[in-house]
């Protein structure tokens, strides 16, 4: 673009030149955008849209409307008292008969079972009892009630009515241990069924605990590395970077081997006479903490190190020379200068720990599984995609909010500098 | 931070306690990596010390052509380089574009390009699982390569972006004014200067793909089973010295990566030093 500007004759009025400059600038911007566009487009298609449509499943309620469109429409008109009218009943019977094709019956059966576990069986029984397609029935209300008395109850139809609108908040509510009562008011689920509160609490406790331990271990280490002569510190840095570059699975396997009942940790403790019989150190919370702290510690040490490397030792020396106790000088003069590194490392480690799945799955017990595990479980094992998406969106929102804070605090480059 | 000669006994005590503590932390970091290596040479079938004898039988088991390990390694060696290459090309172009000019929404755009690094893996995995099922890329090499490109690309964007911070774009203008085509300017002027960033971003992307389990577990069938999946199921079902042998090979690989990164860092620091 510069070439075209250079080749134009110089004797042009100034206004024209300004227009040309503007055009050249615009070209430059367009070119810059064109360079970013392939990746941005690629990410939107393969990353943003898939995740967006996955999250949509947390409010998606289209099962009934797609398999039984007329029934869904009719039930949304119904006022919820007595029984739905004859037309709705007839539409329901006809669409139930058709739902056998293409797996529709399975979809609505699964969806209705979230409302009440009896629906799938009821639908199957009713389908078997339906008269042949050609037969004309005058009174569907009686016909259905004869097949199963449940069709004569308002509650049965109310349950189906709840699945008729295109969206639902039941999964989001359920992932917060809430539900809608019979009157539509939001209420907490029975104490015995409160599952996810414990899961989120556990996720926070593990991620928070791992972050604090990483800070406690990483701060002194980063301080040592930043204050040692370059030659020694580079050598010691290898001990931080080698685990950092080593496969997560290798490190997880190593911790299982180290901590198993006849592993090196138990053998050493017994040889030292500290314990009589082997301790259970793995497949429980202890194992999760060991492995996760080990995997995430470098992510704490590296940002701390890069901040501490830039802190001049003179301030601390000045404080000591003015009579401050060395500890006071460290705490009041040095530590405040490391705050940005501490914040960066802490948030980074916490964000990464929140989403952990593989390590707790391998070294933890059933009571140590975090939110990610349940997202995977609902997707793969029970096909309850609404729940998977609802739990996933909460995890994602928390993570993105924390990332926003992190982003405010540090330049992105610091993530993997060094 | 050497101990001054006039240090009091308390200071002396603290100094050495502090060093001891740091030593223990370093020991904690390196022990797991080192402990697993000798176990891979065990002649027994248990992962415990002391070793009953020394043998290479577990390496033989890994490199058995009919076994699962070699097939998994092959799959990873297909997927990781392709994903890395794609990430390097897309990431480098984007980083150059981001530094070439200011345009509205640049901050948002950068946030988008970095986001695969932040979003929890299981969410990426479930999202791609549904998406690939719809477009017929589930259980395919193409799907796996695309997924791993997404996960690796932020590293390339970040590292190339960082090397471009010190890059003077007047060089591009000079090249263009001397009549070089934009492509020629890129390959002869820009690329040689940002190559350390491109390569180190590529190494990060490669390491990511070579160690990625969660997404692969969701979108790959047994045919595309990658090395990390094989490791994962091996650890879960029956942790044998074969895992230790594979781990040793992977540790060797990570050492290689570490050394390469260190050399790149030194090179770029030398370059920076010579300019200033």
From TrEMBL, chain A:
* Regions that span the bilayer: 32-56, 204-226, 238-258, 286-307, 342-365, 385-406
- What are the alphabetically sorted keywords of the record? Cell membrane, Membrane, Transmembrane, Transmembrane helix, Transport
Q: Which InterPro entries match?
A: MetI-like, MetI-like_sf
Q: How does it sit in the membrane?
A: Multi-pass membrane protein
Q: Name one GO cellular component term.
A: plasma membrane
Which PANTHER family does the record cross-reference, listed alphabetically?
A: ABC TRANSPORTER PERMEASE PROTEIN, INNER MEMBRANE ABC TRANSPORTER PERMEASE PROTEIN YDCU-RELATED-RELATED
Task: Say which family it is in.
Answer: Belongs to the binding-protein-dependent transport system permease family. CysTW subfamily.
Q: Name it.
A: Putative spermidine/putrescine transport system permease protein
TrEMBL record, chain B:
Which InterPro entries does this chain map to? MetI-like, MetI-like_sf
> Which SUPFAM superfamilies does the record associate with it?
MetI-like (SSF161098)
Can you list the GO cellular component terms from the UniProt entry?
plasma membrane
Where does this protein chiefly localize?
Answer: membrane
| PROSITE patterns per UniProt | ABC_TM1 (PS50928)
From which domain of life does this come? Bacteria
List localization entries. Cell inner membrane; Cell membrane
- State the UniProt keywords alphabetically: Cell inner membrane, Cell membrane, Membrane, Transmembrane, Transmembrane helix, Transport
Q: How does it sit in the membrane?
A: Multi-pass membrane protein
Task: Quote the Pfam families the UniProt record gives.
Answer: BPD_transp_1 (PF00528)
Membrane-spanning ranges: 20-41, 78-98, 110-132, 144-164, 185-207, 242-264
Q: Which GO terms describe its biological process?
A: transmembrane transport
Looking at the record, the residues that make up the ABC transmembrane type-1 domain are 73-261
Question: What family does this belong to?
Answer: Belongs to the binding-protein-dependent transport system permease family.
Q: What is this protein called?
A: Putative spermidine/putrescine transport system permease protein
Source organism (scientific name): Halomonas campaniensis
